[in-house]
Amino acid sequence: MDTDSPQTAAGSVLLPDWLQRCAENRPQHLAVQSGALRWSFAELAQQATNLAQQLAALGVRSGSRVALLAANSPAYVACVHALTRLRAILVPLNTRLSETELGWQLQDARVNLLLSDPGQADRARRLLTVRPQLASAILQLRPDGSVELDPSPPQTHTTTFTPAPLIDLNAVQAIMYTSGTTGQPKGVLITYGMHWWNAIGSALNLGLHLDDCWLACLPFFHIGGLTIIMRSAIYGISINVHEKFDAGAVNSSIFSEGVTIISVVAVMLQRMLEALESEQPGAGYPAHLRCVLLGGGPAPRPLLEACAARGIPVVQTYGLTEACSQAATLSPADALRKLGSAGRPLPPVQLEIRQDGRRAAPGEAGMIYLKGPTITPGYLDRPAATREALQDGWLATGDIGYLDEEGYLYVLDRRSDLIISGGENIYPAEIEAALLSHPAVAEAGVCGQPDPRWGQVPIAFVRLHPGQSTSTESLLSHLQTRLARYKLPRAIYFVGELPRNSSGKLLRRQLPSLLDHALN
Amino acid sequence: MDTDSPQTAAGSVLLPDWLQRCAENRPQHLAVQSGALRWSFAELAQQATNLAQQLAALGVRSGSRVALLAANSPAYVACVHALTRLRAILVPLNTRLSETELGWQLQDARVNLLLSDPGQADRARRLLTVRPQLASAILQLRPDGSVELDPSPPQTHTTTFTPAPLIDLNAVQAIMYTSGTTGQPKGVLITYGMHWWNAIGSALNLGLHLDDCWLACLPFFHIGGLTIIMRSAIYGISINVHEKFDAGAVNSSIFSEGVTIISVVAVMLQRMLEALESEQPGAGYPAHLRCVLLGGGPAPRPLLEACAARGIPVVQTYGLTEACSQAATLSPADALRKLGSAGRPLPPVQLEIRQDGRRAAPGEAGMIYLKGPTITPGYLDRPAATREALQDGWLATGDIGYLDEEGYLYVLDRRSDLIISGGENIYPAEIEAALLSHPAVAEAGVCGQPDPRWGQVPIAFVRLHPGQSTSTESLLSHLQTRLARYKLPRAIYFVGELPRNSSGKLLRRQLPSLLDHALN
């Protein structure tokens, strides 16, 4: 899958640039709010154009790949749109990853320029020491509210830059890494068309109010956050940007800044409720909050019931990077009647449950398959993985679920071995690979353990080479340099044997039963 | 342009059937209301399937062309969706046309089946006398609220019918006749994609509320009415169907049936205001009416001001059949600030004003050009007319307008010679051709005359052959068998010469000046 192919494939739809249209149609309408900073659409478009100019001076052009290592901020929003104006491709980096993981992604995506925010500048500098050929700059939000690159691009390098007036729905907007059962992260190609169709599908399901304001506390480097930036420009609505999740700050924005929709994962919603409860027991949110879009894995039923009791309009959704976030969403009208369901596929999406190569009957569990214009065309430079995941346009998600008699989706389990911890996806194979790189480890198996706060946390089981010895501390210190902190196993158990099937495949689901026999 | 070409062209998007999705997502939600009749989406889908079954038994199949001569009714809505299930093509016939005009369209569209409602059954029967090979049936809404064909299709003719699960956006949904400067009506190909993109563009501009209810008093055989049927299924919202326009009945629906959006032309809105005024001077509409979409030609400013004074949310739009209704629409926020403007192009649409082959400057008048996925791929069996109208994807509308400094469209004049009378398009060339078919007439010219009620009415100028004589009455009686009543000239003037340019082209704009010299 080559993103450098001509960006105007036959049959593609070209649409007038979304942000530019907003700047023309609703120039004074609030586009971005973050604390005291407020940008209208005219201002956001201007910031994006200015930044695009600076990026062009650094040599960014159509097809360039620009990695962004940054927390949520208005500058992130401006940068996403600046790259669209240049027809360059965004590679959003997860700030929680280890430098080893980040370096791997920079390499795999053949990134041309690494941008970071001031908070990540030190890490970016360290990443550059072993990649001296990689250009870099710091993305700064100045006290006057303008977005600038540091160092400023050289004056001599004057590239003429003309914003692209049209967006080709077939063009790649971002490359977003997600791991899989193999443990090796893969770059999911995210096209403008996926964003467009997802935004439209979401609007058809949730409605679209001209005064909507979508609160973004999910990181923009995840698909659930990035799509908020795109929806804002497609719909012409405001984003309320939170640099990080803070339950009190989020509640305060909801109450006083006109937030109508918020995307959250269960652990966030739980903390928002706790903060709300500590202020005013039994209270809910003001009526203008019309949708709490709850994604990131199955939600605990007590949480859903607590929200229902307070009249909080929770709408559960099932999404994944390959489907550009939401694939199925419960409609607000069904929120109570179908509590616990992820609803029905978005209007442009087809969804099937398959078991043993046939469509499952209602109530019968099987793997969730998706098809439609919100689904990725494939993985960057991974033709085999693309062929395996996408057959006849149908994406094999690896997730398990069933449809009830009325066709409502219930997700039973994310990809058989996926661990979801506080909304972050953790792939056991990645942790296992890191454990196996320790000289004393012969075999490793990782699975999730229920956790009241995070939903799940990873735990590890290792078998050592005969005659070798090591400690939990030594293994954790080995992992710390290789893995993001949230991926570190909460416990490491030393065992004499791991459960495997007859062909030697690790049976991760049987790992918990080892706890009875664990050696420490 | 061949509508029989494969319906799954490369690069086309396939979407799950819209009505079927509504029947699954919102089965109990009100889909159609008309007086006492109320159909939920589940019921509408069932009616459409039943009717499709009957139509299949009559031999209708994918690609069949089915003409429908009927007033607005729930049966019309069911029939439109039934044809989608069969992948057959709708040819909506204007009930106001003469039988000569209708016969011509049946011929030109190579219609396979003529459906009519009971009120049009006599006319349909007369149309069939000279076309004995054409199949026909009457579309009936039974007292129990079911839709049936009369006569019932033969029991023996059992065609297996499977509703198509997906809609191909490239497939032709309807062939809708519109005349042009040539006077010969042309069949505009209306694809599902045009409907989809128009509906989405409209929703992005006007917002989409899950409890929206769109009142349809514009005839379904016009694009402004037909698109309401499609939007209802794309959005999952209700239609309130009015068989014909009656100001009191429309006002009553607005007040008591939860109407949130209504599409009207100026003469309708004027009468609604008059009816409202007679009941309660100075009153407006309840707040749930959030949009009065005003199309069908430039609106008189006093009407707009009267609505503004009453807080009636009028949104002006500029549309045409070739653009699947709305091409530019004023956003509600600008309704007062830009009174008289048709607003800005819908998000998926590009709009340019061109004068002398270049883009006009702000404020400079020129011809309106449109491009985008809401624009027709062309005219049925008219490759030359298609090439002339569509160059590089840009539709030359023939309409004149300008953009102000902020890019808002002001339509000065519809196609130089188009007459818009009570929202109906009247093409002078058509009336001229009918006049010229009278043996005494040597030359004929038709233009519009301002009219306080209808906006415009047609008037005619004729030069007789030397030595011939006739009367206004004789000419009108000649026209009556050939033209719809609303196209009959309000006055016919006998003149010695018609204004023509050096190449002999009729200068219709100069016709009014002849009134000073008219012979009667």
Automatic annotation (TrEMBL), chains A, B:
InterPro entries: AMP-bd_C (IPR025110), AMP-bd_C_sf (IPR045851), AMP-binding_CS (IPR020845), AMP-dep_synth/lig_dom (IPR000873), ANL_N_sf (IPR042099), ATP-dep_AMP-bd_enzyme (IPR050237), MenE (IPR010192). Residues 20-380 form the AMP-dependent synthetase/ligase domain. Its EC number is 6.2.1.26. Keywords: ATP-binding, Ligase, Menaquinone biosynthesis, Nucleotide-binding. It is an enzyme of class 6 (ligase). It holds the Pfam family AMP-binding_C. Pathway: Quinol/quinone metabolism; 1,4-dihydroxy-2-naphthoate biosynthesis; 1,4-dihydroxy-2-naphthoate from chorismate: step 5/7; Quinol/quinone metabolism; menaquinone biosynthesis. It catalyses: 2-succinylbenzoate + ATP + CoA = 2-succinylbenzoyl-CoA + AMP + diphosphate. One of its GO terms (biological process) is menaquinone biosynthetic process. SUPFAM superfamilies: Acetyl-CoA synthetase-like (SSF56801). Residues 430-505 form the AMP-binding enzyme C-terminal domain. One of its GO terms (molecular function) is o-succinylbenzoate-CoA ligase activity. Belongs to the ATP-dependent AMP-binding enzyme family. MenE subfamily. Converts 2-succinylbenzoate (OSB) to 2-succinylbenzoyl-CoA (OSB-CoA). NCBIfam families: menE (TIGR01923), PRK03640.1 (NF002966). This is 2-succinylbenzoate--CoA ligase. It comes from Thermogemmatispora tikiterensis.
